[in-house]
Amino acid sequence: MPSKRLISRVILAFFFLLMGKNTAAQDLKKTLQKGVMSADSSVYFFSAAKSLVKNPADQADFDFAKNAFFSDHGILDSCIYYGEKALTYFEKVHDLNKMIYVRHNMGKAYRSAGDYEQAIQISFEALPLAEELKSLSWQGWLLQGISNNYHDFSGYEKGVYYGKKAYEILLQNQENDPMSVVLALNSIAINYDDWGKYDSALFFHSKVMELKSSLDTLQIGFTYNNIGNTLIKLNRLEEAKPWIQTAIKISEINSESGISEDYDLATYYTNLGRINTKTGNLKEAGEALTKGKFYSFRSQSQEKIGDNYEALYEFFKNSQRPDSALFYHELLTQINDSIFNEKNAQLITETETKYQVAEKERILAEEKLKNQRITFGAAALGIFLLASIGIGFLTVKQQKLKNHQQQQEIEFQKIKAQVDIQNRLQEQRFTISRDLHDNIGVQLTFIILSVDQLKKSLQPLSERAVNSLDSIKSFTQSTIIELRDTIWAMNKPKMNFADLKERLWGFIEKAKYSETIAFSFEMDEALEEQKLSSFEGITIYRIIQEGVHNGFKHAEAGNITICLRKKGNDGLEILIEDDGKGFSLEEAEYGNGILNLRKRVSDLRGKIDIESTIQKGTKIRIDLPENFHDSTRNS
Predict the structure, then answer these.
(1) Which of 614, 475, 478 is nearest to 555 (CA)?
(2) Looking at the DSSP assignment, which residues form a beta bridge with residue 518?
(3) C-alpha distances in angstroms, 254 versus 40, 73, 182, 221, 287?
(4) Distance CA 103, CA 64 (A)
(5) pLDDT tens profile 428-476
(6) What is the distance between the alpha carbons of residues 232 and 244, in angstroms, rounded to a whole number?
(7) CATH superfamily placement of domain 216-340
(8) Residue 613 β-bridge partners
(9) Cα separation of 161 and 164, whole Å?
(10) What is the CATH number of domain 494-630?
(11) Considering only CA atoms, which of 264, 284, 265, 261 is closest in space to residue 273?
């Protein structure tokens, strides 16, 4: 991945724009130039520039400079804040160059924050402006940015498509701007790499190295890293290591010059850690991954943080430290859930489709205008009037058919894109759940076997030691059960209440077998086909599980009743009753069980009411509103 800084080129582009107009404000512009170029003295120069602002145009240039500065230095919130302020003025005066440039900076900021929906949307908004400006450079840069966003969102096929579009456009301007061609080639290559098409990735990376003679080596450290990254995936580790080490040296030289290299160093040290993990050099791996973690947090990039967590998970797994491995696996899952949720996938598809529809509509409008001209010309030729009417009729009919076909193609592409994204999300779920089962599940089972072996081999044991080992075994067994439930939910991104009912019956049957309790379970037939997301399903399952555990673990109940009833169109009422010994609500309010129960109900926007009477039992009632399906944590 290239440095999102490339600060020298960005600054040159910025000052070309900034100095090109409005000579009456040269003092302000020169001061702003110093503010953008000087990281150490930027506060001083921007303060001086602020005193030179005399009118709305000056204020817009000031906001524009701050937007560029914060973009290059990775200060994301400020970049977006000043970008939105600058756009308000530039859109009024229709300054296309600056409108595009500000959006380009904001797109980089959103991408770093992992907000790919906004990043792609803002790039698609800028593309028509670049076309209106007839700027090949801007069209290529924006398409290249879209390619990178699809890469980070695991949309590799689309990433290759937009990367190649960028390359075709930028190739026309290669002599003036070879670096932009390099970045387009890089976008194509990294998408091929993570798509698993390694030969294609190395081919496009090699095309960058062919251009090396016309470039500054300090600008292409990312290519050295990316070649190394592909070689890692091909398990050619000894070949990969020198490429990664060269990339690190280049970034360290750039850092000494004041260029922000946090994003790149996060990538390079994480990759170096991966190599050392795979080759068994665990001490060196730990040192590299610690540096990678430091720089990934400095970069504020969700993508880089996630990559580092994944590498740390592999490191601790190979170091035989299952607790730490599970910890980083959970962190990785949380990041992936925040990035790859279906809502974002759908919004990105809709944003792209809007752009494609606009393009098709523009083409249709041009064709319509062309038809009108044809019809007018035909009408003017009086001597050929009858023939012209016939030709015009056929032309219009053919064009209507063509228009209809284009509209159908738009709909088809939209549906295909949605299906592709859903398939990729499901593949990722299966991969993670398989890894959980094959690695964490196996290690937990190994712990249980080890505890049993210890009890046999260390005889005689004190009662305290036996109790401690039994406690470890019991906790591990319950963790395995929770893990299996999580895997079940991950493998069913969409389910209904019939699926949930089947899972609950399995849980109840196991409880019957281990406890002398009579269970009663009822569910409205009207609920059977009602849809649930995996998050909703597992949360409702955990709520009922927690309520039932209270009955047979703490309340010493003889009978437990579970009832699920439909409320309104999509609402739900859950009742869990037992005839146990009850408990004091004041004393239990802050226990883990009650807190977990309230937290899960809150996640589904529901309400919970608990009634408990000493020696008479407990009644738990949960009401989930009709909009509980809109929970932002749906997966």
Answers:
(1) 614
(2) 559
(3) 16, 13, 18, 10, 22
(4) 11
(5) 555 555 555 555 655 666 677 667 767 777 777 788 877 778 778 777 7
(6) 10
(7) Tetratricopeptide repeat domain (1.25.40.10)
(8) 617
(9) 5
(10) 3.30.565.10
(11) 284
Nearest to 62 by CA among 73, 53, 54: 53
C-alpha span between 388 and 400 (Å, rounded): 18
Alpha-carbon distance 374 to 217, whole Å?
56
* DSSP string over 39-107: SSSHHHHHHHHHTT--SHHHHHHHHHHHHHHHHHTT-HHHHHHHHHHHHHHHHHHT-HHHHHHHHHHHH
Contact 578, 538 (CB under 8 A): no
Q: What are phi and psi for residue 387, nearest 5 degrees? A: -65, -40
Give pTM, 2 decimals. Answer: 0.50
Tell the burial category of 213 from Cβ atoms under 10 Å away from its Cβ (0-12, 13-18, 19+): exposed
What pLDDT, in 10s, does the model give residues 536-573? 888 898 898 888 887 776 667 888 899 999 988 888 99
**What is the C-alpha to C-alpha distance for residues 269 and 225, in angstroms, rounded to an integer?**
10
In the chain, where does the domain assigned CATH 3.30.565.10 lie?
A: 494-630
Single-letter residue type at 74: G
Beta bridge partners of 620: 576, 610
Q: Where, residue-wise, is CATH 1.25.40.10 in the chain?
A: 216-340
Question: Residues 298-336: pLDDT tens digits?
Answer: 887 778 888 999 999 999 989 888 888 888 888 887 777
Neighbours of 123 (CB within 10 A): 31
